[in-house]
Amino acid sequence: MICLGIEGTAHTVGVGIVQDTAPVILANVSRMYAPVSGGIHPRDAANHHAAVVVDVLRQALDEAQMDVEDVDVLGFSMGPGLGPCLRTVATAARSLALYTCKPLVGVNHCIAHLEIGRKMTEARDPVLLYVSGGNTQVIAFLNGRYRVFGETLDIGIGNCLDKFGRELGMSFPAGPAIEGKAREGRCYLPLPYSVKGMDVAFSGILTAALAKREEASLPDLCFSLQETCFAMLTEVTERAMAHTGKSEVLLGGGVAANRRLQDMVASMAAARGAASFCPPRSLLVDNGAMIAWTALLMHRHGLTTPVEESHIRQNFRTDEVAVTWRS
Ligand code: ATP
Ligand code: FE2
Predict the structure, then answer these.
(1) Is the bond leading into 126 cis (omega within 30 degrees of zero)?
(2) Of 53, 246, 288, 323, which cross-links 16 as Cys (Cβ 3.0–4.6 Å)?
(3) Non-local CB neighbours of 325 within 8 Å, separated by 6+ positions
(4) How many whole angstroms separate alpha carbon 218 and alpha carbon 162?
């Protein structure tokens, strides 16, 4: 079975083509919208997606050396995400489904990060630490659903890093530049450590870090910001592992490309005798292959989304989906 998936919840529009035999991923093509100044403007991002989605689709089909008629199932990111972006890719997916008469599957974006990690690493039943620009969640499978064990109470960790970088003149996305600067940091500056139960909050840390910019060097600030935020994320992830009794941790989302975060999570896992897994960068960031793979899994278990029920869901919660494809 061959499935084509379209991702478009935020900055990235991506088309992935996967199959259920090796090699699983036949194509995974993405294009990212970068705001000229300031933060992401949902309508501008949606216009970007509308302008490039056909090109991205053609490129993915070329890479997979196939025609759209060869695809058996069409998946799309139904939510959560920015309304205008979601609507744009949903329209593209519906048009393709109607044109080809192939079934459509609406996919929860957060679950797709977990499923592609489970397929492309050796993780089988992990706790997922999902850290991106807009999302920060600790997710694990329990009683037929992916449950959220902890999450951000305000902004996503990537958003915190990008805002910090923007204030200090770094270009978007700032995560990689902050990681580079943090490597030169020598001195830890105390910042508010904001873990509330199983949840985390980043906006206070961001304000506190920016308030220290006159008195501290940029490397020390970046180092301290990373150490504080990543320690919080590692702490709640460890607690979710202890609570669920799971012995695997999986990383997902663009911020998981950060080596310091990977090392912290890996050493936490090693200390508890657990295993830590991190997919390649192309599958950590938002991508079409993860949507395609999750749609394939869902379709194999009889789940499809009729076009008339394929409305987007901006606040689509991870735990709303009955995960019937896992026993
Ligand atoms: P979502 O819709 O899932 O919220 P997103 O649009 O934020 O996703 P991703 O590609 O998953 O997209 O993540 C982008 C984020 O990852 C940005 O905030 C960026 O700064 C951050 N990032 C990328 N590389 C690194 C890195 N090496 N260290 C820290 N953060 C990073
Ligand atoms: Fe994402």
Answers:
(1) no
(2) 288
(3) 297, 298, 300, 301, 303
(4) 15
Q: How far is the CA of 215 from the centre of ligand 1 (A)?
A: 28
Task: Per residue of the chain (327 residues), give pLDDT as tens.
Answer: 999 999 999 999 999 999 999 999 999 999 999 888 777 899 999 999 999 999 999 999 999 999 999 999 999 999 999 999 999 999 999 999 999 999 999 999 999 999 999 999 999 999 999 999 999 999 999 999 999 999 999 999 999 999 999 999 999 899 999 999 999 999 999 999 999 999 999 999 999 999 999 999 999 999 999 999 999 999 999 999 999 999 999 999 999 999 999 999 999 999 999 999 999 999 999 999 999 999 999 999 999 999 999 999 999 999 999 999 997
Beta strands 25-32 and 2-7 are: unpaired
Q: Do 38 and 107 form a contact (C-beta atoms < 8 A)?
A: no
DSSP secondary structure string, 160-228?
Answer: HHHHHHHHTTPPSS-HHHHHHHHHT---PPP----EETTEE--HHHHHHHHHTTTTS-HHHHHHHHHHH
Residue 79 region by backbone torsions, left for phi larger than 0, else alpha for psi between -120 and 50, else beta: left
User: In the chain, what is the straight-line distance between the N-terminal and C-terminal CA atoms, in Å?
Assistant: 21
